[in-house]
């Protein structure tokens, strides 16, 4: 039974985080919960090398296909009885010591009583869960390394280009179609899409790679591959219908490899991911009308990007640092903040108890303040 993800936005897991506190959506819809921030952190991925002129889809596929697996999720039906509940995909990225490590989507293995993987040769073996992170929809599995002949290499998702050709590899509709490959292009390097977990928890926005390579139920957790044969993303969701109900084709999304590498390394090391928060609810400045920017925020006309503080966690990091409701954050650690994605990108490069420097406007006055990240993001 293939991964059941054909909903309005098929998140086959939630990819995002929050800044901390109840985020707000501004406009005619009123103030709503919207803790949408951007998960992007430093990566140790192998840098993408120039792709040779004679590189083909076939050569790229051959480099990575033997590392792609089907992931089988079994539920318990009795004392010693198990039944396959769903299937997805994964990719073996590391072989070291007593284990080989597989990255997949969290939703693929969520709730599993047992996990198996089917290797490229059709052999099925047991897998153990190393760690999972619902916020980025990633999980790491461990299997017997003696069964592994090939591991995949990560490319640098910061080096990808719109229009670049890519392959999506996995098990659409289940393991009977294992190692299926589809070809497409990168449609957008960074796309912020709304995302919810399978149990309905709203994680806000997810910053993902958009591609028109066909991604179907069961492809979740499989790799998005460049023509150098490097993994530049982990396929996670697709858009099947728009908010108006219109049928949509060719809009798939993948978690960028720079995020993947950071998260899987943390999962292998600690079994979990701990994120700092600054303790604010926010809305993007672009969502505020020009009239309200002048009358309510009272910021200079030259301020065209940033995030507006709509609420603060009492005694949280931002509150202690002196930020107020309607302040507009425009920078963090010297990096420009045009929106929530920029803020999250820099924030999640830090650890709990680190200190960041925020640049913000309190009405017409531009200020900077140091904020100690003493608050942990709720998981």
Automatic annotation (TrEMBL):
Keywords of the record: Hydrolase, Membrane, Protease, Serine protease, Transmembrane, Transmembrane helix
PROSITE patterns, sorted: PDZ (PS50106)
SMART domains the record matches: PDZ
SUPFAM superfamilies: PDZ domain-like (SSF50156), Trypsin-like serine proteases (SSF50494)
Domain PDZ span(s) in chain numbering: 287-339
Transmembrane segments: 6-26
Annotated InterPro entries: Chloro_Bact_Ser_Proteases, PDZ, PDZ_sf, Peptidase_S1_PA, Peptidase_S1_PA_chymotrypsin, Peptidase_S1C
Family membership noted in the UniProt record: Belongs to the peptidase S1C family.
The protein's name: PDZ domain-containing protein
Native source species: Leuconostoc holzapfelii
Classification lineage: Bacteria, Bacillati, Bacillota, Bacilli, Lactobacillales
